[in-house]
Amino acid sequence: MDVVYGLLLGLALASSAIAAIRFAQPHRVMSPQGDAMQAALHAASATLPHLRRGLSRASAAKAAPHLLTLVQAQSVAIADNDEVLAFAGAGDDHHGPGDRLETLVANVDERRARVSGPTRCADPACPLGAAVTVPLTVQERRVGVLAAFFADTGRVQPEHVRVVQEVGSLVSAQIALAELAMQGERLARAELLALRAQISPHFIYNALTAVANSIHEGPEEARELLTDFGEFIRYAFRSERPYVTLQDELHYVGKYLRLEEARFGEGLQIRVEVAPDVLPVVVPALSLQPLVENAIRHGIEPRGGRGQVSIVAIDSDTDVELRVTDSGPGMPADRIRDALDGKARDGKGGIGLSNVNGRLKATFGPAYGLELASQPGRGTTVTMTVPKFRAGVRAA
């Protein structure tokens, strides 16, 4: 879906810039075509970072002056379905945010651009004349209106309508991308809350047992383990955005592993190979840790706490592959899909694997789910691939 909106955005950006140039040239005879192209593209691109935050008073206020430059009208208004969110240009001394939409324009079409008569303003000195209104739509649902106002003198030309319509397409594409990003983040948050609710009682019990066993023989170590436990729990339940850097995730995975090492002693071997240049990559919070916990519980515990868990990060062009491998008993092929789907067999389902798999796909797209490779007697490898950069996904 984000690819479709991306293509729509590119087409809207190009067509709106070209349309604005054609319209602007008769009014800017002294400006070279190159200057007109540069000005139109700058105005179009300047709206992008604001509208990508969604349709609100704040984003509309920042985008409105740039949209005014693009449509080459006297004034421009951005509204939701009920009231004006931002107004720029002539008449801004008595028109602005909070005005009811119907006080400016009437009979906005739900699907296409429309030319209406003089504005319905009660101020006799209002300079606004005819208006071109364009519905702002997301998935065929109207979420707002873009209105461009022209002087009373002269008729609104078809070129005026086409320019406003193309600019409206640009705005709609940006709002659609913003809604898509917000939906992905809401899903990621919901999945994270679900994972937090499932923080393994098995782990908590074992961690506190490891602390208790160290109190008499190694009180200092017990204090350090309790500190690690507390910091990990705070990390798991903190309420910031659901994304962190790989460096942060690894830091708290380290605290988790210290507790497990205290429980298993020298029987548990840990290997970590992560290049420093991939540490800033953004990952969903609590995404790597469940994979490591899964390796401990289903790879190390069945063999009496003896074995190796490795965490390896591989730079793969525009992506980073994170592989968690255990030397445990492995699993047959028919259980791999069940593990990713969260279908436990006899209580042996993967801890959080389906949750992490869902959050990866919701955040980065369907190509970024987990991959499992396992054979009985030869251990299990879980691979998590994340892009080095994804617009709108930022660490807390």
Outline of this structure?
The protein has 396 residues and is α+β, with helices and mostly antiparallel strands.
Task: Provide the descriptors you would attach to this structure in a database record.
396 residues; alpha+beta; 18% strand; Heat Shock Protein 90
Strand content: 15-25%
Average pLDDT level = 77
Give the biggest beta sheet: 5 strands, antiparallel
Order of helices and strands: HHHEEEEEHHHEHEEHEEHHEE
CATH domain topology of the largest domain? Heat Shock Protein 90
CATH homologous superfamily designation of the largest domain: Histidine kinase-like ATPase, C-terminal domain
The rounded Rg comes to 28 Å
Strand order of the largest sheet: 2-1-5-4-3
Could you give the distance between the termini? Answer: 25 Å
Q: Helical amount among residues, as a percent range? A: 40-55%
In the CATH scheme, the class of the largest domain would be Alpha Beta
Q: Based on DSSP secondary structure assignment, what is the total number of beta strands? A: 12
CATH architecture of the largest domain: 2-Layer Sandwich
Tell me the structural class.
alpha+beta
Structure description:
With 396 residues, this protein is of the alpha+beta class. It has 2 domains: 2-180, Beta-Lactamase, CATH 3.30.450; 198-387, Histidine kinase-like ATPase, C-terminal domain (Heat Shock Protein 90, 2-Layer Sandwich). It contains 10 helices and 12 strands. The protein has helices spanning 2-24, 33-51, 57-71, 158-197, 201-214, 219-237, 246-264, 288-300, 333-341, 353-364; strands at 75-79, 84-89, 114-116, 131-138, 141-149, 243-245, 268-273, 282-284, 307-316, 319-326, 371-374, 380-387. The strands form 3 sheets. A 5-stranded antiparallel β-sheet has the order 2-1-5-4-3. Strand 1 (75-79) and strand 2 form a beta hairpin. Helix 2 packs parallel to helix 4, helix 4 packs antiparallel against helix 10 (353-364) and helix 7 packs parallel to helix 8. The longest helix has 40 residues, at 158-197. It is elongated, with a radius of gyration of 28 Å. Residues 1-43 have low confidence and may be disordered.
